[in-house]
Automatic annotation (TrEMBL):
Gene3D superfamilies: 3.10.450.50. InterPro entries: NTF2-like_dom_sf, SnoaL-like. Residues 22-135 form the SnoaL-like domain. It comes from Klenkia terrae. This is Nuclear transport factor 2 family protein.
Amino acid sequence: MPAPDVTVRGALSQSEGEAVWAAVATVYAGFLGGDAGAVDAVLAHDVTIWNHDHVPLMQGTADLDAVRAARVTDPAPGPAVAALAPHTVLVDAHGDVAWCRHLLDVTTADGSTSTARVTDVLRRDGERWTIVHHHEQEIPPHGLP
């Protein structure tokens, strides 16, 4: 997955903004590599998640684990995700809370593509950033109003 340019605003330095992005990028690399442990390492235990293909709000890693387990026994129809290409990354912060917004191009095994807009909210925990909220929305092919 190529590293996108990261635009940083506000009180963060460029290197701090890139550290925020690195936490978010860990989720994508873990997802593509099938490494739930890598994903979980950057999630707060009480993380909330709005996922484009799972309607109820996931509240905590236990909810995420339940969704993961359900996907094993009842996989989603259609081709698997083959590649993720994040771009247009914007990061800023207030105190120990950062927001990372970006677009995510998704390519499936059959070559079809879609784009989602994503927002992650992170909290600084010592020297690292932890995701406390993830929200993704797939953009319909005809766009959003």
